[in-house]
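Researcher: I've been going back and forth with a colleague about how SDR family oxidoreductase might be arranged in three dimensions. Neither of us has a model we trust, so I'd like an independent prediction. The organism is Adhaeribacter terreus, in case that matters for your notes. Sequence below.
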Amino acid sequence: MKIENSTFLITGGTMGIGYATAKLLIENGGKVAITGRDKTRTETAAKELGAFPITADVANPDDVKRTYQEFLQEFGKLDCLINNAGLGLFKKIDECTLEDFEYIYRINVFGAALMAGEAAKLFKQQNSGNIINIASTAGTKGFEGGSIYASSKFALRGMTQCWQAELRKHNVRVILINPSEVTTAFNVATREEKPEVPNKLRGEEIAVAIKGAIEMDDRGFIPELTVWATNPF
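Model: Here is an independent structure prediction for SDR family oxidoreductase. You can compare it with whatever you and your colleague have in mind.
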């Protein structure tokens, strides 16, 4: 797809990977809306980027429907959904509670599915579209303390494969992006960005990967793309 004049909806776009992706797409002529749960943070980030702000929680079905209403009222059509909103929680299995799993799954799994479901309705009608799911290398291999987070990303990976099977016949490309460790505000209680580390990934590297994947001619797509830091040691 061509980025210029195409429309993008990015969840969790106020910082980190979402913010970097919005910035790169806008710099290349894309029309972008970002979502965030905090109204002030969302509107501030949107003003900095030149994006359209939507204050919404992807875990809330009513917010999801309102997100699409506001987006379509502003842009008229959707070309690409980027499911970026996500949270992390890391505990040993004997420390995990049902509430812990529900808290993370509501954002990382259920929220992504609700957002994709609404996008799929639009894309099937217009016989085109793109869904980018931001997962993690944690969704390809488990690790100590990762029962909650890794399983949520394994779930997103599995759903991505299901959506690919369902939507290819409608000319819809569903792409999974697996970043390894990225120095962002992810899993930081204050939601402040972490300082850049020279040998670690930034949101910018993931944004470049997303841009490269979606710029491929619509006749083809990359089902899954993993991004590693070259030498994080």
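Researcher: What would you highlight for our discussion?
Model: I'd start with this: The mean pLDDT is 96. After that, consider the following. The CA atoms of residues 84 and 91 lie 22 Å apart.
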